[in-house]
Amino acid sequence: MANLTEPILRTRFTDISAALFTSQNSECKDFELRYVYCLEAYGKSLGESKCKDLKEDLRECVFKIKQLSRVYAISNERSRQLKSGELKPEETYGPIPKPDSY
User: Sorted alphabetically, which InterPro entries does this protein's record hold (predicted)?
Assistant: First the structure.
């Protein structure tokens, strides 16, 4: 997430590399646009408190912290069940689909 301030020196390399630090070419572009519009409406100082929820949504979309922690929790629970014998190894995952069933 960008600092949303102007660079000290503006060159053509600044403009070329600007797209690398945004989420405009990803699935998070709507979250980033909502956050930037909110900051534009309230200003940088007041926008930090008013747009906090939008910033958290953008951060979750970019870094996927909650999603990955959920995947790790499910994986750890599955391996715990395998070790304790609650789950048989052949029941760990669902059945394999038939060929050409997609």
Answer: NADH_UbQ_OxRdtase_FeS-su5 (IPR019342)
Tokens (6 digits) for 39: 């900051």
Half-sphere exposure of 40 (CA within 13 A, CB side): 6
The number of angstroms, rounded, from the C-alpha of 100 to the middle of its chain's C-alpha atoms is 33
**What does the alpha-carbon distance between residue 97 and residue 89 come to, in Å, rounded to a whole number?**
18
18 close to 3: Cβ distance less than 8 angstroms: no
In single-letter form, the type of residue at position 18 comes to: A
- Please give the Cα distance from 93 to 82 (Å, whole number): 11
Per residue in 4-29, pLDDT tens? 566 677 787 777 777 777 777 789 99
